[in-house]
Hints:
Layout (H helix, E strand, L loop, with lengths): L7 H6 L47 H23 L8 H30 L16
Amino acid sequence: MGGFKSSYLYSVLNNKCPRCRKGNLFVSSNAYKLSQLTAMNETCPSCGQPTEIEVGFYYGTGYVSYGITVAFSVATLVAWWVLIGFSLDDNRFFWWMGSNAVLMIIMQPLFMRLSRTLWLSWFVSYEKDCKKLDTSS
């Protein structure tokens, strides 16, 4: 596997292990299966990289998720402004706020997973020819 499928962007957007960029980080590939929303494999099925480096490791993902939702809101604001526009004579701004809120609620499971994947990828380096880690100890 090479090229596009081993790129950083592909691996993050598809919730792949940051070390090998092959194994799935989450137990279920469906982010909307809410009972397993944040259920992660203990180790990467492909290379054995632990997914929780230390206790409480994922507390920092709140900041990442906040940044993602702010970026999403700015993007929808710009899109609304370009496509529909804003006016002081009507309630278009409030329609955008409501639409944006509904979209963020719908997208929240994806944002949560993306923030966890990004957070882990900032602490675990990619190894092109990584070997399976011995996690028996």
